[in-house]
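If you are new to this repository, start here. Below is one unmodified record pulled from the training split, so you can see the exact layout before writing a loader.
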Amino acid sequence: MCPLIDNGDKRCSQNLCLKHLELAFAICAGDYYACPIYREYVKRNFNTAEKRELQPVLSRMA
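And here is the target side for that same chain:
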């Protein structure tokens, strides 16, 4: 489950609705590393060590 769901990010709200329910389950509740909003969050908020740890997963999703 994407950690941004509970943060109330306005950019996520467009996907978290009945109209986009399938996308929400696929990305937000599943493969959130592929989400451009999550990737931007990581770039802005994670320190260097955390980014290094996530790099193998994020590089597969690029």
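Two things worth knowing about this chain: Residues 5-61 form one domain. The radius of gyration is 12 Å.
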